[in-house]
From TrEMBL:
EC code: 1.2.4.4
Stated name of the protein: 2-oxoisovalerate dehydrogenase subunit alpha
A GO molecular-function annotation: branched-chain 2-oxo acid dehydrogenase activity
GO terms of biological process kind: branched-chain amino acid catabolic process
Amino acid sequence: MFDYKSVGLNEDDLKTMFKWMDLGRKLDERLWLLNRAGKIPFVISCQGQEAAQIGMAFAMREGDISAPYYRDLALVTYLGMSPLDTMLSAFGKRDDINSGGKQMPAHFSNKKLGILSQSSPVGTQVLQGVGAALSLKMDKKQNIAMCTLGEGTSNQGDFHEGLNFAGVHKLPFICVIENNKYAISVPDNLQYGAEKLSDRAIGYGIHGEHVDGNDPIAMYKVMKEARERALDGDGSTLIEAMCTRMTAHSSDDDDSGYRPQEEREGLKSEDCNVKFKTFLLSENIIDDEWLAQIEQEHKEIVNKATKEAEKAPYPTPEETYNYVYEEGSFLNG
């Protein structure tokens, strides 16, 4: 792990990081159980990417705008979306803050928290995040906009158009590639020929950073520096965080058809949560008693959110068109 003291973090900060990483993991694990029990229709996992997500979130500040992608459960939970919000969305309930139960799970949205509504076509969040950065610059705000994506999305046209625009106008924008080495079933060696995707930053005239996404401290460092550069008028940054996808692409996927058995069996050794926990234990920052307490707290939080969401009402037929068309349209009168 990177030297936490050299980047201004203390032991309490590291404990806080782990708590959010663990809560994200526990929520994700519960979603899988609910899906396998036939209670929710779909899961797309953050497991293996929590360190990158909490590391970057730790460097963000109030007023920053985020355009996350579908694996960012730990990130949006840290930013303020509650476990109940997550469960209401998973069950498709009326009080789902993302879409009122209309959108598929993991399409995050929260105006109050500065989380832009996610579009299903991958890559659109880059353009939306760049647009938000342009507005922040025009309004002379001391904030940044950021977006996240998987490495597969870095091959979409929206990615290139957005970063080119951000580079030309020196926008306060940070783009984070959470590179988990698979675009659904396509391995990274069949996705791109470059050694590092962060090297693409050169062509856009922006900063590029390559970082171990399993290390939340290292992730915090590069995100903090990118944010400082952006606010100093030094332009945008492309960060490539190397992560591990611990699960199949989604609950509808079987990765045994394309992922070698040896690789799948070795995933546990790459688990960012286990690695960070081991580091904290070795440094005597936490102990088994503290871990047991956190385990119990998070179990109670997830249980409570699950039970409340299960009991919550579904949208009514009369609410079908709410927030789909503008008020005053031919459907809403």
